[in-house]
Amino acid sequence: MSSMLSKTNILSRASLRFLVPRSVVRQGITRSLPSQTTYIYRSYTQQQAPPRMNSQEKIPKFDISKLSKAEIQRLRDFKHQEDTKMKNRTIALYFSSMAVLFLGLSYAAVPIYRALCARTGFGGIPITDRRKFTDDKLIPVDTEKRIKISFTSEVSQILPWKFVPQQREVYVLPGETALAFYKAKNHSDKDIIGMATYSISPGEAAQYFNKIQCFCFEEQKLAAGEEIDMPVFFFIDPDFASDPAMRNIDDIILHYTFFKAHYGDGSAVSDAAATVAPGSVLVKNPDDDDE
Amino acid sequence: MSGNPGSSLRALSPTPPERGSFPLDHDNECFQQMSAYLECMKLVKGQNAPNCRLLAKEYLQCRMDHQLMDVDDWSHLGLPGDSPAPGKR
Q1: The domain containing residue B50 runs over which residues?
Q2: Domain match, A27 and A152 both
Q3: Which end of chain A is more exposed for a tag (fewer CB within 10 A), N or C?
Q4: Cα–Cα distance, A127 to A116 (Å, whole number)
């Protein structure tokens, strides 16, 4: 009886395409062996039993004209269910893959962030950029105008030191190295460790102010009553002369501030016998709010 | 040369000093060279004249001799090199 239903008969049913999934139709059409038709028939019976069965093996239920409304409805529901199942599975796969992706990103973020910060200096991480200090940067630019570098100093109120610059100002050309001195005197009766930080005004010029060597950001220990000279060896980057944003700047102020260094357990460093453990010193800055 | 001249973001990220910090001259070993240099700068009113730069070179040479600074070529420090006759250090 399967031979009665020819391929063309099945294909001509245009409405069939809407009701029946394409894969099922293809199976039914390309393999017309009796065993395959039995298989297809069974896939329908999983969902619902078609009420009319002329012959279990021979007739596939594709004859629309013979199907009742209920059967068509059932076929339609079956297709809808299959579609929904497929869609749900797709959505679940997408969401789980997104979750895995973000989990992986959160793990990868640590080295990526570190590399990005070291490269761009974002977030205040200093760039150890050797290219700023190459020899060709140390050739003075041939201009008439010299830049005035003024030196100012400040001491934290709890630090009993006297800290002054040795020269008021220096006039330099961009690319010309210059040496400047500060003098610090500890007029207390204890050995004290201090640490200096600096700032450049105006802020835009700070990117061109390169220091070869200075005395900042490291502990400097002064014995009681000791007076010492601290040099700063610096230069202005030659690109300063060719930067249009810097054309109005001919006055730069280098400002040094000395703070008192404390140990991590809160005790002030007061005697020479205390040995400094690296990495255990906190710089206390209680009164300087505007630095 | 510079690929992004004058970007304001660059001004936010400070550059540390190339050689870090000068060791302190507790024994004032280079005091004479320093005072000579400061006198010279007072005379030229801070103009960073070439003769003062030579005195700065003397001071840094003193520091190098007393292990207060790493020895380096003068070209790396932007100072005029020694004349070849007395021999290069």
Answers
A1: 31-77
A2: no
A3: N
A4: 11
